[in-house]
Specification:
26 helices, binds zinc ion, 6-stranded mixed β-sheet, about 40% helix, binds O-methyl-L-tyrosine, about 20% strand
């Protein structure tokens, strides 16, 4: 067990830097075993800083020497610790020359400078720059960078860094150099370099202003046939940001580089975005529709950071959501606008709601719950969370709902007018929105400071004689670690009222006006909203478009839900009504499983599913989403005491019942939604494939020879990965061992050299209910498996621990023991990735006692391990606290 306790860092303790950096000149002599970094920093004392010591961060690097204003510093003049270098009593203006040595090829953490497949890459967010050189590695220190790269020309023909290439040439002895200069000031976390054997697709692109820029997508040689979509997405992103927000690319050159070993999705380094290959490489043969959509979203996300994150950055890491929440909101809007239709927009919105419920609500209710702007952390890498990203985006979206789309644009304009080139706080964004629109958003601040998912309880009352309708909304928010007695939030609740014919009634209310939908602003603990001229008892459609990240508690009758499910003009609530119908039944079935009672599914529900499945007036994409039942995780969140086996049995029973009752309709939809002709990832075609493949999955729940043959035929004939992978998954899930075994074999043989496709091969098996711990252990011995590559580790281990609840929660605790082993093994290689896996045990206290005991033992085993990283230690100690 670790005996020291890691330090907690508090937002309230923020102090301005004692010195600011004017310029940085970096020189790299790149060698995988021993890289030498020369760093010349010009510092000036910051009048806001309290003292005259210069504090430079530095970790896992060897200091060769340091000079101040040309003179070598003697040991007494500075102190060197595990965390950095302090130079005592420095004059007001200082030039430091610092030389460090590092071993990139030994760096398995993938933070700082590291080697992947023989090439050099960097990852500096959040605190990776300090693994390269000594520096005030904090986002409120912004400086201009010049970078000289030197490396073997044969092995590393491509040398890239931020900004513009200003010089390059030969050095003799087989080495060459390139010098880069970034014209913009930036924090150290946005620094990047790449030294590699790569090739690029490039294009000159003309901005709306007429200025021409160079766009490049860099990949390994064999992948040049997979860069078109990323390039297209980049061009679309550039155009979109010009049109929607008036924001232009500020550089002459913009590069995307793909790397196979990467901890996250991608990184927005200024002018030199570094991407996980998963979010760059695509062609129809290897990428699914979901992969294509992911590429568009992530390329957009990183590009949009160029303004929201890079031009205006964060003062400190507690403000992370300032850039992440806003940039996720922007990429969500981009993806929705790219589809362009109302249903398309709704489909993206439904996906966002599903992510929130699947991952963010559980986080907000667990031991790692934190506000969108946290008050403290031990390890910042643990705070790249769904709360910071997705809930943060919801908070930004609510501001848009409150001030309107035009008002939001005004707020963005004011934000940039005020803060371009600065490192600021979440409050500054909110202030810009408020000031640009003359709105009071003071109470809205609580969305940033209070953790937990609010519950909004609605009660309605209709007075037929007076023709009035009253909606009373009461809000509350559960306690979260360190926070009790929450104050009311400012919650926009979009509402419509449906008449008996299913149409929206005209709305006459105090304080809010709207045709079919009004936005009620709930600011008190309890508030009643009045509607007049309501000629008939309406069915309320509450929280339209999921206007706030809350749990809506309203006692809908089945009849009301069926009415909304068939008619609501708001597609998100139409979907929601279906989810509520299903959830009520799933909870009842789960209870029945627990009680050993017989299971049954009512004809009304089946009829509603049938009507939806066969309604050709609805987009296929919408039908597919509406037919997906709430996941086992989402069901678990609704229960006091979680019995994962009972949930699994109940949900499987419902799936089997639907499959049995709707077999002819499923087959008909399977045929009707074929997409002949050349593959295209557009939303229409992708929606059809999704519905077709959902039908296939249902048809293979209890397959006969004909269904197995259908899947096999699709698998063999598919000209695209979406259909091929769906057929393979259906075969695996069908439990028909022979069909799956030979398909798995041929799939592996076909794609052996496509790492991302092999990730899918592992992932599909890891998530199948037939795959137990023993099977996962066996897969780990496969020659293609390695813990060192994060994508591969995630594909097998994360997908098992997080995506296969009925096996992970095996009664004997073997899943948890496996989890503990893997967390410990991963931690020795890559603490960031290990800490993410550690999170799979967050909700352990909610499980049935027998499982809880096993989970606790596994957590304690990890917590007691000898040399744990701060990353994992924070997660497991919070879980056990
Ligand atoms: N800023 C990136 C996410 C990111 C964060 C940390 C990383 O390494 C530890 C890498 C990427 C984004 O939002 O895309
Ligand atoms: Zn981001």
């Amino acid at each position: 067990m670790r005996t020291d306790s890691p330090q907690t860092i508090y937002r309230k303790n923020y102090t301005p830097p004692s010195f600011l950096v004017e310029s940085v000149e970096l020189g790299f002599d790149l060698d995988p075993a021993r890289t030498i970094v020369a760093n010349r920093i010009k510092l000036v004392r910051n009048r806001d800083g309290k003292h005259s010591d210069i504090e430079l961060h530095g970790e896992h690097i060897e200091l060769v020497g340091v000079r101040m204003n040309g003179k070598r510093l003697k040991p007494g003049q500075y102190t060197l610790s595990e965390h950095g270098l302090t130079i005592r009593k420095a004059p007001a203006k200082v030039t430091l020359d610092i030389e460090t040595v590092l071993a990139p090829q030994e760096n398995t953490s993938l933070s700082g400078l590291y080697v992947s497949n023989g090439n050099f890459f960097t990852q500096c967010e959040a605190e990776g720059f300090r693994r390269i050189t000594f520096f005030p590695d904090r986002p409120d220190v912004m400086a201009k960078y010049t970078v000289m790269l030197r490396a073997d020309k044969e092995k590393f023909p491509v040398l890239l860094s931020n900004g513009n290439l200003i010089e390059q040439g030969e050095l003799g002895d087989g080495r060459h150099y390139a010098k880069w200069e970034d014209p913009f000031k930036k924090p150290s976390y946005l620094f990047a370099l790449v030294a590699a054997r790569l090739v690029c697709q490039e294009e000159r692109y003309t901005l709306q202003s007429g200025r021409e820029v160079l766009l490049q997508v860099w990949v390994e040689e064999g992948n040049l046939d997979k860069t078109d979509y990323a390039m297209q997405s980049l061009k679309n992103s550039i155009r979109w940001d010009e049109q929607r927000f008036g924001l232009e690319l500020d550089l002459d050159r913009f590069m995307i580089v793909a790397v196979g070993d990467f901890n996250m999705g991608a990184m927005e380094n200024k002018g030199l975005n570094i991407f996980n290959t998963k979010y760059v490489l695509a062609n129809p043969r290897v990428a699914t529709d979901v992969d294509y959509a992911g590429i568009e979203a992530v390329v957009g996300h990183e590009y949009f950071h160029n303004w929201t994150g890079n031009r205006v950055t964060c003062r400190d890491w507690f403000q992370l959501s300032l850039k992440e929440g806003l940039t996720v909101f922007r990429d969500q809007e981009f993806s929705a606008d790219m589809i362009g239709t109302d249903t398309g927009r709704a489909v993206t919105r439904i996906d966002q709601v599903r992510t929130l419920r699947q991952a963010q609500f559980p986080e907000d209710a667990g031991p790692m719950a934190h506000p969108v702007r946290p008050d403290s952390f031990v390890e910042i890498n643990n705070f790249y969370t769904v709360t910071i990203y997705e809930k943060g985006a919801e908070v930004v979206r609510m501001m848009q709902t409150l001030v309107g789309r035009d008002g939001f644009r005004k707020g963005m304009d004011l934000y940039f007018a005020r803060h371009d080139g600065q490192a600021v706080q979440c409050d500054d964004f909110r202030a810009a929105m408020a000031d640009a629109n003359g709105r009071d958003l003071k109470q809205f601040e609580r969305w940033y400071s209070q953790a937990g998912t609010p519950v909004v309880k609605a009660v309605t009352q209709y007075d037929a004689a007076a023709q009035t309708y009253h909606i009373t909304l009461a809000q509350s928010c559960p306690d979260t670690p360190g926070q009790t007695a929450k104050l009311p939030f400012h919650i926009p609740v979009a509402v419509g009222l449906l008449g008996a014919d299913g149409k929206d009634l005209p709305l006459y209310t105090d304080g809010a006006a709207g045709q079919g939908t009004v936005v009620l602003e709930l600011t008190e603990a309890t508030q009643t909203f009045h509607f007049s001229g309501v000629a008939q008892r309406p069915t309320p459609s509450l929280l339209r478009d999921f206007s706030a990240p809350v749990v809506l508690d309203y006692d809908y009758s089945d009849a009301e839900l069926l009415h909304l499910f068939s008619h609501d003009s708001d597609p998100v609530n139409r979907w929601e009504a279906g989810q509520r119908l299903a959830m009520a039944r799933l909870l009842k079935l789960t209870a029945d499983v627990g009680a050993g009672a017989p299971l049954a599914l009512d004809a009304t529900f089946i009829a509603a599913q049938r009507a939806l499945l066969t309604d050709a007036t609805l987009d296929a994409a919408f039908r597919e989403l509406a037919l997906i039942l709430p996941s086992e995780t989402i069901i678990a969140e609704r229960m006091e005491v979680v019995d994962p086996q009972a949930i699994h049995t109940a949900r499987q029973f419902m799936r089997r019942s639907i499959a049995a009752a709707l077999k002819p309709e499923l087959l008909a939809q399977y045929q009707a939604n074929q997409t002949p002709g050349a593959y295209s990832p557009d939303a229409q075609s992708a929606g059809k494939r999704a519905l077709k493949n959902l039908a296939l999955a249902y048809l293979l729940i209890a397959p006969q020879a004909a269904e197995l043959e259908l899947a096999q035929r699709q698998f063999d004939a598919a000209d695209n990965m979406t259909d091929r992978a769906a057929a393979l998954a259906a075969l695996i899930h069908s439990g028909a061992p022979d069909g799956a075994a030979s398909a798995l074999k041929s799939y592996f043989a076909d794609f052996e050299h496509e790492a991302l496709v092999i990730d899918k091969w592992f992932a599909m098996q890891a998530g199948a209910p037939g795959t137990d711990v023993a099977a996962v252990r066996k897969l780990m011995t496969h020659p293609a498996f390695t813990l060192k590559n994060p994508n591969r580790a995630r594909s097998l281990i994360f997908n098992f621990c997080g995506g296969n609840p009925s096996q992970f929660h095996a009664a004997d605790g073997s899943g948890y023991a496996f989890w503990a082993e893997q967390v410990i093994a991963l931690d020795a290689l890559n603490p960031q990735v290990a800490a993410r896996l550690a999170r799979s045990m967050d909700r352990w206290r909610r499980y049935v006692p027998a499982l809880q005991a096993h989970m606790k033992a596994a957590l304690e085993r990890v917590a007691g391990s000898a040399s744990l990283s701060n990353d994992v230690l924070e997660v497991v100690s919070k879980a056990l606290a």
